[in-house]
Design a protein that fits this description.
Shape: globular
Order of helices and strands: HHEEHHEEEE
Number of strands: 6
CATH class: Alpha Beta
CATH topology: Nuclear Transport Factor 2, Chain: A
Structural class: alpha+beta
Oligomer: single chain
Strand content: 35-45%
CATH architecture: Roll
Distance between the termini: 30 Å
Strand order of the largest sheet: 2-1-6-5-4-3
Radius of gyration: 14 Å
Number of helices: 4
């Protein structure tokens, strides 16, 4: 299941399966930096407690850049379609090949809010 599909199904644990399940991953957003898979998941659950809050997610990948054999930088945009607003923003992700599986180890996401 893709991250977008997992989000749109309301399955945050499946959404988080793209992240390395370690205490060393980092997520930087409007509230600062969070470290650790479990803490990032907790923040998502607090910010998006139900399907209404989660809305429908779409991604637009703008650029992928190899940072060596084991790392990639991915730049893109996300949009959440909700009844009363349409938050969107940009992200940069660092993906790492860990034992043959590509996982996010760093996520920097910005948020802009557009009202309908």
């Amino acid at each position: 299941m893709s991250q977008q599909d997992a989000w749109n199904a309301g399955d945050l644990e499946a959404f988080m399966s793209a992240y390395a399940k370690t205490d060393s991953i980092s997520f930087m957003g409007r509230n600062g930096i969070t470290y650790g898979w479990h803490k990032v998941l907790k923040n998502y659950k607090n910010a998006y407690p139900d399907l209404e809050a989660m809305g429908k997610l779409s991604f637009e990948i703008n650029q992928t850049t190899a940072l060596g054999e084991l790392h990639y930088l991915v730049l893109g945009k996300y949009t959440l379609m909700r009844e009363f607003d349409q938050p969107s923003g940009y992200f940069s992700l660092i993906w790492k090949n860990i034992n043959g599986n590509w996982k996010i180890i760093n996520d920097h996401t910005s948020v802009t809010l557009k009202l309908n």
